[in-house]
Give the backbone structure.
Amino acid sequence: MTHPITPPRELTEQWASEKCYDERDWLYELHIATRAAQWGADQELEACCEWFVRDWTDIETADKLRAARRPKPPSLKLQALNDLNTAYNEDAIDDTTYCNIRRALEALDD
């Protein structure tokens, strides 16, 4: 079974209206091409996941595939802890400040 890979017109119009760059700038075209490539990859991933469920009744594998191919970005808390550790390792902050900020971040919910 084949799936259409051309984005719907409404979607391309939406991407074109995202005024990230000047329309005369090549970055504008790169933005639209990147969005189209992401959309196409998402369509392919969802088709594969649907195949697992439809032909193999394997929802668990489909969910694992989706999670592996589209991992969630780290939480803001984890990003902040990583940045804090980097700053500490580069001697950019003192021990007391590091400990205070680390304890405060660890107290936050993910």
Notes: The chain has two domains: 9-69, 76-107. The mean pLDDT is 88. Helices lie at 9-17, 26-56, 59-69, 76-89, 95-107.
